[in-house]
Design goal:
- It contains 15 helices and 21 strands.
- Strands 1-2-6-5-3-4-7 form a seven-stranded mixed beta sheet, sandwiched between helices.
- Helix 1 packs across helix 2 and helix 6 crosses helix 12.
- The protein is globular, with a radius of gyration of 22 Å.
- The N terminus is likely disordered.
Length: 479
C-alpha cells in the first residue's frame, strides 16, 4: 500500500491483476465479494472439469485468510464440488503441486503475496500447477457480474475435508535437490521466515539437508512484525545482521506465500533476483548438466541473454507475470524461468514460482562450488560479460497521463536516449526501448494503480542517471 493511500477508499470493483484479485480487507475484500468471486470461479470449473475431481482451497498467514477460505469452501460444496482445505496456512507452490498431483479441478489460494497486512487476495491455480492464463482469468472475470454474493444454505458438510499437502511436496523437492551434496557441505544458514507460510517447510528442508540453521519469525503474525512479508531491503535487516555477526554461509527468506525468494550472501549483501537467476541458470548448466531454454520477462536482466549465448541455449522474452513463463514451461523444455520481482522455477519442477526451492538451490550452488557465495556471484557475472546496472522509477501519474506517455512512445519514439541510439522498439508489454550497446528502457503502466514503472538496465551507473533524468523530463512534458 502506498503511503498516500487511505484505507476505505477502495473502488469496490473486483479487478484481476497479473496474479488474481487483491483488495483491502473489510473494504473491498469482504466475505460477500469472496462468495461472489468463488461462484465466478465455480462457473468456470463447471465448463472445464468433472465434479468427480476435488477443488483444493488454501490460504496464507493473513488476518481472516482461513475464514475466507472456509467461506469459499462452503460456496463450492453448496454447488456440488468436493472440497479439500489445507490443515494450516500453506505456501502457494505447495498447493500448486497438490493441484496437479491430486488430480484436482485446481485450487483456490487466499493470499496477497508480499503486500502489506491490510491486503488479502484470491487466485485460481488450474490443475497443471501454474498460474491461470489470461484466457481463464478473463472467463472468471466475465462471470463475476452474473454471480451472487448470497450466503449458501444447506451446505453438505460431507463434501468438505481437511488435508496436509506438506509430505508429498517435501518428498518431491528432495528429488530435485542434491541433498547429499548439501549435507556434505555442512552449511551455516540463517533463515528469516518473515512470519510467512514457509515456516515449517524451509526450516524442515534445511534440517533434512544437514544445515546448521537458525530461524527467525517462524510464527504467525498477521501484522508481519509491523513490516511487509517481502524478502528484500528494509525487511531483511535482521537477517543481514545475523549472517554477518555469526559468519554464516548464507541467509534465506521468502515472501508471505513463499513463491518469492530472498538471498543474503556471507558478506551481508542482499542479492537481486536478477543475479540469483543468473547464478542458478549457470549452476543448472555447468554443475548439474541440465539443458533447456532460459525464459525471462521484459523487465528482467539481459545478463541471462549473454549467458544463454555462451552456452548455446535459447532465450525467450515474455510479458511481465509468471503466468507467461509458466505457459512456456508447459510448452517447451525450459531450464529456468524467472522475473526480476523474485520468482523462478526450473526444469523438472511445476510451472509456478517457488521461493522454497529457489532458496535451497542457491545453498546447493555453494555446496557444489565450495566457495563463498559472493565469490561465485562475481565469477558468474564476469562470465556473463560483466556487471549491468538495474534501476526502476515508480512515477505516480494520472491515468490520462499514463495513456499519453504510452501513446507517445509507441507512435513517436525517440531516436536516442541520453545520447544513446535507440535500435529497436518492443511492444510485448508496455514499450521497451532497446539501445545500442545493450542498455534498455521499459515503460510499463500499472493496470490497477495510477503508476508508471520505468525499468532500465545500463552499462554504467552514470549512464543510468542520465537515462533516468531524460526519461523523467520527457514524461513530464506529456502531462
Amino acid at each position: 500500500m502506498s503511503a498516500t493511500q487511505v484505507i476505505g477508499e477502495g473502488t469496490g470493483k473486483i479487478v484481476f491483476g497479473t496474479d488474481g484479485w487483491r483488495g483491502i480487507i473489510a473494504d473491498d475484500f469482504t466475505f460477500p465479494n469472496v462468495r461472489k468471486v468463488t461462484r465466478a470461479i465455480a462457473k468456470y470449473l463447471s465448463t472445464a472439469y468433472d465434479q468427480s475431481r476435488p477443488v483444493l482451497v488454501a490460504y496464507d498467514t493473513r488476518f481472516l485468510a482461513e475464514e475466507f477460505a472456509i467461506a469459499a469452501a462452503h460456496v463450492l460444496a453448496s454447488l456440488g464440488w468436493t472440497v479439500k482445505i489445507v490443515e494450516r496456512d500453506c505456501p502457494t507452490p505447495v498447493i500448486a503441486y497438490a493441484a496437479k498431483y491430486l488430480n484436482s479441478a485446481g485450487a483456490l489460494m487466499f493470499t496477497a503475496s508480499h503486500n502489506p497486512a491490510p491486503y488479502c487476495g484470491i487466485k485460481y491455480i488450474p490443475d497443471y500447477a501454474g498460474p491461470a492464463t489470461p484466457a481463464i482469468t478473463d472467463t472468471i472475470v466475465a462471470n463475476i457480474d452474473r454471480s451472487t454474493d448470497e450466503v449458501p444454505t444447506g451446505v453438505p458438510s460431507n463434501l468438505i475435508s481437511r488435508f496436509d499437502p506438506k509430505p508429498d511436496y517435501l518428498k518431491f523437492i528432495y528429488t530435485i535437490l542434491d541433498c547429499d551434496r548439501i549435507r556434505s557441505a555442512k552449511l551455516k544458514v540463517k533463515y528469516d521466515a518473515l512470519y510467512s507460510t514457509s515456516r515449517g517447510y524451509l526450516d524442515t528442508v534445511l534440517e533434512y539437508c544437514g544445515c546448521e540453521a537458525e530461524s527467525f519469525h517462524t510464527y504467525r503474525d498477521v501484522l508481519f512484525g509491523g513490516g511487509m512479508p517481502e524478502p528484500k531491503g528494509d525487511q531483511l535487516i535482521e537477517l543481514v545482521a545475523a549472517v554477518k555477526s555469526d559468519q554464516a554461509d548464507i541467509g534465506l527468506a521468502t515472501d508471505g506465500d513463499s513463491d518469492r525468494f530472498g538471498i543474503v550472501d556471507e558478506q551481508g549483501t542482499v542479492l537481486t533476483p536478477n543475479i540469483v537467476l543468473l547464478l542458478l541458470a549457470r549452476h543448472l548448466v555447468v554443475n548439474k548438466g541440465k539443458k533447456g531454454a532460459i525464459v525471462r520477462t521484459v523487465a528482467t536482466t539481459h545478463l541471462l541473454d549473454n549467458l544463454a549465448a555462451r552456452y548455446g541455449l535459447k532465450i525467450y522474452e515474455t510479458a511481465v507475470g509468471f503466468k507467461y513463463i509458466g505457459e512456456l514451461m508447459r510448452q517447451t523444455e525450459v531450464l529456468i524461468g524467472g522475473e526480476e520481482s523474485g520468482g523462478l522455477s526450473i526444469i523438472g519442477h511445476i510451472p509456478e514460482k517457488d521461493g522454497i526451492l529457489a532458496d535451497m538451490l542457491v545453498a546447493e550452488v555453494i555446496a557444489y562450488e565450495g566457495k563463498p557465495l559472493s565469490q561465485i556471484v562475481a565469477e558468474v557475472v564476469e562470465e556473463a560479460g560483466g556487471a549491468l546496472f538495474n534501476h526502476r522509477l515508480d512515477l505516480h501519474l494520472s491515468n490520462p497521463h499514463k495513456a499519453a506517455v504510452i501513446s507517445h512512445f509507441k507512435t513517436n519514439p525517440p531516436r536516442a536516449i541520453a545520447g544513446i541510439p535507440v535500435k529497436e522498439i518492443g511492444l510485448k508489454d508496455g514499450v521497451k526501448l532497446y539501445l545500442e550497446g545493450g542498455s534498455w528502457v521499459l515503460l510499463r503502466p500499472s493496470g490497477t494503480e495510477p503508476l508508471m514503472r520505468v525499468y532500465m538496465e545500463t552499462n554504467s551507473e552514470a549512464q543510468q542517471v542520465a537515462i533516468a533524468q531524460e526519461m523523467q523530463a520527457i514524461i513530464k512534458t506529456l502531462e
